[in-house]
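Notes from hallway chat w/ T.B., transcribed later so I don't forget. T.B. wanted the structure written out for a chain they're using in a teaching module, and asked if we could keep both sequence and structure tokens in one place. Agreed to drop them here.
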Amino acid sequence: MKSIAALAAGLACLATVGSAAGHLPDLGGREVVVVTENAYPPLQFLDADGNAIGWEYDAMAEIAERLNITVTYENISWDAMIPAVSEGQYDMGMTGITIREDRAEVVDFSDSYMTSQMVMMVRGDEDRFTDAASFAADPDLLMAAQPGTTPFYVGVYDVLDGDEANPRIKLMETFGATVQALRAGDVDLVLTDGTAGNGYVDASDGGLKIIGGPLGTEDFGFIFPKGSDLVEPMNAAIASMAEDGTLEALNVKWFLEYKLGQ
């Protein structure tokens, strides 16, 4: 674990971005419309007062300052996001989107701003299974997933039998709905990346836990319409934030310091 001094030094980078941003393109205050789901803590979600907050919002605020853009936000469901961005309805999308070849056929991705691992999230008192194999072996156990997401495909191909119509997978519109179904006992498993999973577990007061080992690694990126001229400057901003410690500082803030639900 890093020392407190090292973490503090990383956080200080958030206040000293000017020198790192000096070589970045100036987009002249250009308006960029970003669409998100607000259902993937701690990357982006609504707090108790209904304010949209999270890692990605802080990152976009940094990017806006470094590139001289004006960001406005719209909200959309996950299943509609990639098609909407692909069609040019929005300039950019963010919601912890895994960089995948099939998605890259219809949208352009930024460089990765975060790497995470898929984990199994269950209720805190779950004792019927301890890993993917023991879950798959019990036909009475159910999982929830959003269609077309990485957790859906991992559930189908890495946990179950490869049948995308397997009735053991209950499809839901939002990630938040899958967690609610888990907590209510309607399903027994939710697959999620470690970042969001740890956020929900930390906020659950023992109601949720992570079991088993990681099921794979995924890189997150922002999405854009094909051929967007925003990709190159966004990549430059992400690189500068990695170089000066800002990305690490955001990780510290949202994954070590912030407690969901407070």
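Follow-up for T.B.: The first strand starts at residue 30 and ends at 36. Might be a good example for the class.
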